[in-house]
Design a protein that fits this description.
The protein is mainly alpha-helical. It contains four helices and two strands, in the order ααααββ.
Length: 110
């Protein structure tokens, strides 16, 4: 514990990678941009399939169940339902791989 490799006080306790408790405005803007990008891909695939005169069951289900970015409340854009949390909501950036997983639908009433 002594010498050049002794642990410093801040490094000896807590997590090494600290996660801030709230999203920054830049992270929120990137989250909205990701949601809009997914919406545009869904719209593009839907118009392409309509031109061909066909449809996909999964695409119709996505459009029926998932809200678009402009239909979502800010609470749903930036937080997710978590039954272990005190108020049943957790900031979306606390979810592992939150930039790759779609979290648009939460249980009713939460």
């Amino acid at each position: 514990m002594f010498g050049p490799f002794k642990p410093s006080l801040p490094l000896s306790g807590g997590l090494l990678w600290k996660i801030p408790w709230r999203l920054s405005p830049h992270q929120k803007a990137r989250q909205r941009k990701r949601l809009r990008a997914v919406d545009s891909v869904i719209a593009c695939v839907d118009t392409a399939l309509k031109k061909q005169g066909s449809s996909m069951k999964e695409l119709e289900r996505w459009k029926a169940e998932m809200p678009r970015e402009d239909e979502m409340r800010p609470k749903d854009k930036y937080t997710i339902f978590d039954r272990k949390e005190k108020r049943y909501r957790k900031a979306i950036h606390k979810l592992p791989k939150w930039t790759r997983v779609s979290q648009r639908v939460n249980p009713p009433g939460f």
